[in-house]
Amino acid sequence: MNSDNGAAIETEGLEFSYIDGTKALANVSIRIPAGKKVAFLGPNGAGKTTLFLHFNGLVKPDRGKVYVAGKEVRYDRASLLEVRKKVGIVFQDPDTQLFSSSVKQEISFGPLNLGLSREATEQRVRQAMEDTGILDLQDKPTHFLSYGQKKRVAIADILAMQPQVLVCDEPTAWLDVKHSRQIMEILDRCNARWVTVIISTHDVDMAYAWSDYIFVMKDGQVISEGVPLEIFADREVLQEAELDEPLLFKLSKELAGKGCLKEAAPAKSVEELIGRIVNMDYSLANLCKQGKQLCHGKGNNLSIDIEDVECYCKQVKDWFFKSGGDDFMKKGVLVLGHGSRRQAANEELSKLVEMVQAEMGVRTAPAYFQFAKPSLADVVESFVSEGIEEIIIVPALLFPGIHLMEDIPQALEELKLKYGEKVNFHLTPALGADPRLAEIIMERVQSAEKNLLQDRD
Amino acid sequence: MFKIDQYAYTNKLSAVHPAEKMMMAGLTMLICLIFASPPVSLLVLLIMTAAIVVFAGIPGGFLGKLLAVPLLFLVVGVVTVAVTVTGDSGLLLWGINIGGFAVGVTADGLYKAGELFLRSLGAVSCLYFLALTTPMTEILSLLGKLKLPPLLIELMSITYRYIFVLLETADRIYISQASRWGYATWKSSYFSLGQLLSNLFSKSFYSSRMLYMALSSRCYQGQLRVLEKKYCLSRSNLCLIAAVDMMLAVVGLLTR
User: Fold this and answer.
1) What is the ipTM for the molecules in this complex?
2) Domain range annotation of chain B
3) What's this model's pTM, rounded to 2 decimal places?
């Protein structure tokens, strides 16, 4: 098989079992895109480390093939040296990797093995130490170093060999926040030089924010792969691999859902998220401005997002308390729907009415424009006969357009003419309508009210 | 042991060419051993103490403690040299008769014991000078220059490096055991120690396998080649070493 230029490493039906029979890898076929930042996510024992050891031929698979830069890995001495020149692995525990007591000698080991001259090695060692920020450690003995420092030396070890692919097994394990950040910055700098960087981690937040591409592993298999947004949007995969949703991803989604985020796409960094938060208030006007649709579907198949309705009910409540007098017995909520030939669609509205009623404990009734009973006029009539003096009209499940633009203002005008000062009408923004129209209708209602007043004068 | 290692890297003579320090320690020790003369041994002890405390800046108390370490062996050794068993009790300065033999100390034996004591301490101080002022890594690279077999040096170097890893691992296991009352009674102590050792063994085994993998990953082909540090020999230091050792040799010849 000949792979194209896009893959840094490719595996084909990789299988590997340990001597005791434990299956570490089962049919792993993946393509790791070149030049990218790639993360392998998965619980302990998922086979990440074992897979990594295959990448430069440290372990020979029971079955299957590995391709590095399109070339099949063969297991004779010369080919292995060639592969290891291209793919460098930083091991998880630096103590197993650092064999020399002198930092500088340690780093010089790789380049010398590549057959470089003393001068060239000297230069590479220096460069690697600069890149990892350990120049000041060069004369220190290895066992004097802290864990974070050892980790950086371990990375410098590999960088000095200038591989095309840098594989890091758990680069931030056991490190504090500051040192983790340092390590990730080092990896970023490598990637900026077109080195493909591959890491394994449990840290979903880091994987989400850092990587370009993610593989999810479980029980020796790659169960999913894709860009971070795809991976973390897939709840099933996350559950299977026992991974949490990244905090940023979750928060962004939540905030976008509440209409508090510019652009709905999840933020990649805390700064980005903060910069995009627009308004933390849940006012209806704001929800509408954010283009928030509280009901879904089209035509006869409208349904309501229950969580959002709860939030909406609170707003209606505010409206309710703000309007008119404080005698609740004299107030009523009228939920006005489009009315459908399909009874099921109308039942959605009844559900909403029940919720508003339960939430506020006041007289609430549905009304429809067409095809269903009762009509707006009927309900107002019955409200008035019950002695209600304030009617809050909640337009819901309406088609944007004709109702909001024409019908409601017109109906409202008629009602106001009919009942005059006996009843006060309040119109809330539309639930489930085009937000731009909601604004227009508010304006129209206000101008209608003004006209009414002028007429009376 | 850790402290010696720390001083080796941080003392005031750490920048001096390791070969000079090795020459100083080696030659002086040789003179001390060859001449076997108490004044020379005493001088060696004094010079080395001065070099360690004054020039290398290592606390005298610490050196004192180090010198006390071989004292136990020395005393035992010296006593056996000083005590003679003889049939002629007239030679003894002091002694007791047991059956037909007399056990005691002779003037000759006493002199020999004193001389041995000083000579040993002198030689030990030379070694301490080297150990306290020269890091192991440099000694190893020097041995490489002296054409010792690479295999031997690599073995030493890896052993040295992994002593620290081993001790650290052992320490961690010990703490975890002790925090769960692993060493509360004699019985549990024996049990815990056994567990510690076997655990340490399996861990070492695993570490060595991982090390081999890590080395292979960096194109290891059977030889640990690394960059050597470059030092410049100092003429004045060499002259000083020559002067000191000449002086010692002269004293040695005169007191023979």
Assistant:
1) 0.77
2) 2-80+120-134+231-254, 148-217
3) 0.69
